[in-house]
Specification:
Length: 101
C-alpha cells in the first residue's frame, strides 16, 4: 500500500484488503516466501536432529568406554566431551549446513 493512501488504522486496512482483493489478498506473495522457507527449514530440522542424536549416542558410548585418548610420547590425555551440549553442537551444525546449502 502506498503511503498516505487508504486507512490510517489496522482495522480499516484489514477491511480495505477484504473489499478490494477478498480473503486471498492476505495470502498475496506467500507462495514465493514458502518456496524459500520450506527447503531451508527442512535442511535445518534434518541436520539438527541428525547431529543431536549422533552427539548424544557418542557421549553415552564415551561415558561407558572412557572416551577417546590422545597419547603424545609418555603423556596420555583422556579427552572428555561430556561437558559439550549436543543441542549446542547441533545448532552450530545447522547454521553451517543451511548457509552452505
Amino acid at each position: 500500500m502506498a503511503v498516505g493512501i487508504g486507512s490510517k488504522h489496522i482495522a480499516g486496512s484489514f477491511l480495505e484488503v477484504i473489499e478490494h482483493q477478498g480473503w486471498q489478498g492476505f495470502w498475496a506473495g506467500n507462495a514465493v516466501n514458502m518456496v524459500r522457507i520450506i527447503p531451508t527449514q527442512s535442511i535445518e530440522l534434518g541436520t539438527f536432529e541428525c547431529v543431536k542424536r549422533a552427539m548424544t549416542s557418542m557421549q553415552k558410548k564415551w561415558n561407558e568406554d572412557g572416551g577417546p585418548k590422545l597419547q603424545i610420547g609418555q603423556v596420555t590425555l583422556n579427552l572428555s566431551l561430556s561437558w559439550v551440549s549436543p543441542v549446542a553442537v547441533a545448532g552450530a551444525a545447522t547454521g553451517v549446513a543451511s548457509t552452505l546449502v
